[in-house]
Amino acid sequence: MASGLNEEEIEMQEDYRNKALPSSRSPAEAKGGVTPAVPGRKLLRVVAVSFGLLCVLQAALNIYLRFTLMLGCPLGWHKFQSSCYYFSISKKNWKESRQECLLRGANLVIINNRGEQAFLKGLHDLFWIGLSDLDNEGQWRWVDGTGLTDGAWAPGEPNNANGGEDCAEFDKRYDAFNDAGCSLERYSVCEKLMS
């Protein structure tokens, strides 16, 4: 033999070349071809998804706070001069409307001037305002206790028709106030001063 290798050495080298390298896969994995989940990988996915959701929530909160601070009014409220206004989306009687405003940290709107009245005019045809003579008939007071000094009443109003019109509504047809029965259901406007 010129190469200096005997037959046994050649066979050993060939056997060594044809053997599969040791694998980290179990015999079951090798047969089925499916790699089982690595312990902790599922937990890692849950943590990653949770973190992603937290990021989305944080971004939404940041946007909400930015708008609130920029505009000075909470989302869903409208700014005019130094007040925030909430326009109801359902009809309620005067007392329920006032209660809804109080729950929102506000009160039924007090119309202080013609500019504010013009701003509110673009809403519903009829809506409750924070004016009534519930305590003393004929003495109209705003919900903050101040008396009505310059009211823009509709022609012939307040007339206390049928002896039971103790709450005031804004009537868009006349661009003025009207006295109405407090049990009637109307939209309403809540007002709160900007903080």
Key attributes of the depicted protein:
195 residues; alpha+beta; Mannose-Binding Protein A, Chain A; 2 domains; eight-stranded mixed beta sheet; 5 helices; 8 strands; 18% strand
Shape: elongated
CATH topology of the largest domain: Mannose-Binding Protein A, Chain A
Number of helices: 5
| Strand composition percent | 15-25%
Distance from first to last alpha carbon:
103 Å
The assembly state of the depicted protein chains is single chain
Which class best fits the helix and strand makeup? alpha+beta
Rg over CA atoms: 38 Å
Spans with pLDDT under 50 lasting ≥5 residues?
A: none
Which CATH class of the largest domain?
Alpha Beta
The number of distinct β-strands equals: 8
Taken together, the total number of domains comes to 2
Averaging pLDDT over every residue, what do you get?
A: 82
Helix/strand order, N-terminal first: HHHEEHEHEEEEE
CATH superfamily of the largest domain: Mannose-Binding Protein A, subunit A
CATH architecture of the largest domain: Roll
